[in-house]
Amino acid sequence: MIFLVLLRRLAEMVFVLFSISVLVFLIFFATPGADPAARIAGRGASPATLAAVRHAFGLDQPLPVQYGLMMKHLFITQDLTSFVNPGQLVIPAVLQAVPVTLSLVFGAAVIWLIFAVAIGVTAAALRGSVIDRSLMFLAMAGVSMPVFWLGEVANLITQARFHNTVLFSWVPALGYVPLTQNPLLWFKSLVIPWTVLAVTYIGLYSRVLRANLVEALTEDYIRTARAKGLSERQVIFRHALRMSLITLVSMFGLDFGALVGGGALLIEVVCALPGVGMLTYQALQNLDLPFIMATVMYGAIFIVAANTVVDMLYLLIDPRARGAR
Amino acid sequence: MLLDVQNLSISFRTPRGLLPVVEDVSFQLAESEILAIVGESGSGKSLTALSIMRLITDPNAIITGKILFKGEDILTLKEPAMRRLRGGAMAMIFQDPMTALTPVYTIGAQIVEQIRIHTKLPTWQARLRAESLLAAMGIADAQQISRRFPHQLSGGMRQRVMIAMALSCSPALLIADEPTTALDVTVQAQILELLLKLRKEFNSSILLITHDMGIVAQTADRVAVMYAGRIAESGATGDIFAHPMHPYTAGLLAAIPQLHGPRINAFSAIPGAPPAPHEKPAGCAFAPRCAYRIAVCAERPPLLHGPFRQVACFRAGEVA
Amino acid sequence: MLAFAILIVIIAACLAAPWYAQNISQSDPFASNLDGSITLAGQPVDIMQSADTGFGVTPIGPTWTQKYFLGADDQGRDVAARILFGGRNSLLIAAGATLICLTLAGLIGIVAGFSGGFVDSILARILDILWAFPVYLLAISLSAVLISRGLKLGPVTIDSDSLLIPIAIIGIVYVPYVARPIRGQVLSLARSDFVLAAVCLGVPRARILWKDILPNVITTLIVFAPLMMALNMLTEAALSFLSIGVQPPAASWGTIILDGEGLLYTRPAVAIAPGLAIMLTVVALNFLGDGVREAFDPRAKIRVQK
Ligand SMILES: Nc1ncnc2c1ncn2[C@@H]1O[C@H](COP(=O)(O)OP(=O)(O)OP(=O)(O)O)[C@@H](O)[C@H]1O
Ligand SMILES: [Mg+2]
Question: In the predicted model, what is the mean pLDDT of residues C117-132?
């Protein structure tokens, strides 16, 4: 039974991924006016050069064939190469960037979950008070900041303005140091990007959590919990929070997937982290289609996988979902 | 006297001013006695019950009066002491069993949680106790059931679970707020039977809230009839049923179907509707619907008087 | 209410941009001004000053006076005036995209939810797929392609630097976010007792749609509007920051932050000011969204009444 469900999910995932790859392919190869060959050959290339380029890159073949070839190179032979730097293999480049993005998103996620739960619970416990209102205002401000701008401001403060004060003299120059090479430096160089990335999500999650908690606290089962003689803290943590986490977990799964899948692009660019987002960004700048295809597919895989994991988690944390289906 | 409620009033601060919902309510409950509070929807029964457990969490609520439980005033008790009482010496069963249990924990775990707060029993013993309680509620296969989640049980089952939970620490006072309203008739009868049996076994006093006169007749030793936030009449069940002294009570009783007649709502048999809390008249709240109305009724509310049999009506002696 | 007032002020200020450029800053915010100078406290000051290090030039910093209130960017253009002009584009794009998004989402949601059956499953399926697509990547991919070449669709040609491109792209990518809840709402409305009763009474479907479903959907859309506009502002800024949104010489708050990136350590005001403008606007929109939701959500209303 479980096996069948899994199989169905897998089929769905493959279907979604297939649709996404077709969509991306169409965006880049079949948009009216789009001509990858002109891009590769450079501006003002002669028709003869264009034709030669087209032939060399297989762009003179019918679209479905081109699509098939690209997918074959991407997934089966895994030897897709860049259009812009001929010979550069795409897949190793992406694989090399994955740890950077994972480090970034993982650390940020830890920070944002801790802070969001702390803020959300505090605000809900003190609902209506001045503390509640100020926390929620700050959270709203956090949600409303452009991430890349916040990253720049953080850089300005920690790299330039206050870099020579005790507060930020420990911050290393922008860039990434692999964990395996120097764990301490890895940590130091990521603290600022983690914080910047976390701010938006702290704001978002603490607001959602507070709203859920406040709603949950009006439920009958909370009254029962109080009637049992539980303290307010036990009521909030054991009963209200446990119920609110159901929503939060699903949000978290999707956001984590989206960020690992390339959503952290802006921070990676601003903080000079050579992750998948940065790779996408560079590929977009010179329209290096194989790279774009690879990074988008990689991102889609993560997001679709995150969707599936969330559905599975649901079964774990919400007993009501187990009976259904 | 186990419970002695004196001049309890509850009102809410609202944008439109102070909203009096419960006014000047007094009643007593002796050991192993069953007192029923009857009244229409909105008459303040649940709020009265909740205030005894001190479970009114609305920060706009103002509660005055005295609630003496074993001689101690609950309203001035410190929160930790109050917590020890809640679920320990006094327990409550709520109106709607469908939503009263936390959906994500097994019912066994939820009963064990309460036992563990009030006793020093280790978890495994608490589990055994929970299972034996469930069995005492007439649940066959209690071990199995205690591993189920609330959504896997029927309403009647859930109410049994709620009762088992309420009784898990042998409370001296059990407050049952319309324990059968949400259930169908056959299940209703079973649950009531259960409550009567438990009174015998556990020797608990029960404050039974209902709007069903039939239930009152079957179970209660004494009755207090509430109307628009005040007690209209109270006394021994037999007395009240035989000789109602308040026109409202009389109206309610007259509307009860004889034996197996069609079930009708006793409240709707009296013409008119009770006033909303913000539009209560200055005098007797029942006066606009009352056939015995005289001039003084509109001027001031009648006071509850009498030693065992209490009535709040200026013409109490004349009601037949 | 305060949020609404702030929004009005921001919009009014941005509308007054040409007036500000002409009468207050007195310079063309779209023409570079590399060797101009202004008089400050009686002294002539170059707009592009030689840097302290001796290499290159640094634009003038904030003067906190009429001219170059927030300083100049690397082209010697008045940043304050540019922020007002940029705000017009940012607001226009966000508003336009919101309109497109809500219209499309409303249409799709109603068609899917009301027609049901085959049409519904197809549309729901498509929405699911788009849902799984990384929004930023979709927007970025579309922008990268369209910005580099423009769009030729039959007789319609859209230039690559037209504002229509970011408006359309941002408007489209968030459609699933709104269409899914709308579809759910329409589905539950279409199955609700009062609609079923109406169907049984022989009320024409078009009339049910018009009388019962449309008003509900529009309420939901109104609740979504400020929140979507806030989201769109942030997306526009991101795209423009990646130089695949608003194209120079036109400006938006996102492009001004990009202009300021190179001057970050010397003239931080260039990047900080437009960011603050975005933040203020988005905070105001979000609060407005909260207010609107409370005004329309019946549950919230009950809570207030109690
Ligand atoms: N937090 C609150 N703020 C304002 N008014 C309230 C609040 N809680 C309850 N009320 C009002 O108090 C009145 C009495 O409510 P209560 O729940 O005690 O009625 P009840 O007798 O239990 O009715 P039912 O039979 O429907 O359960 C109602 O009119 C209700 O609207
Ligand atoms: Mg009640």
Answer: 79
Q: What percent of chain C has pLDDT over 90?
A: 6
- B83/A225 CB distance under 8 A: no
CA gap C235, C137 in Å, rounded = 11
Question: Using a 6 Å CB cutoff, which residues line ligand 1?
Answer: B 12, 19, 21, 39, 41-47, 58, 211, 277; C 306
Contacts (Cβ under 8 Å, ≥6 apart) of A292 = A24, A28, A280, A283, A284, C141, C144
Contacts of A124 in chain B (CB under 8 A): none
How far apart are the C-alpha atoms of C133 and C173, rounded to whole Å?
9
Complex confidence, ipTM: 0.87
C291 near A CB under 8 A: no
Q: Please, are residues C257 and C241 in contact by the beta-carbon 8 Å criterion? A: yes
Task: Let me know if residue A277 belongs to a domain.
Answer: yes
Give me A275's structure tokens.
């992750």
| Model pLDDT, residue B320 | 62
Q: Range of A238's domain?
A: 91-324
Which residues in chain B have their CB less than 8 angstroms from residue A221's CB? 99-103
Phi/psi at B7 (5° precision): 50, 45
Q: How many angstroms separate the CA atoms of B48 and C107, rounded?
A: 51
Residue of chain A minimizing CA distance to C127:
A16
Is residue A69 in some structural domain? no
Rounded to two decimals, the pTM is 0.86
Query: In chain C, what are the domains?
Result: 87-253 (1.10.3720.10)
| Range from A33-37, B21-25, C290-294 that averages highest in pLDDT | B21-25
Chain B touched by A128 (CB under 8 Å): yes
Closest CB to A149 among C153, C244, C257? C257
Tell how far CA C249 is from the center of its chain. 19
In a domain, A16, yes or no: no
Cβ neighbours of B57 in A, within 8 Å: 226
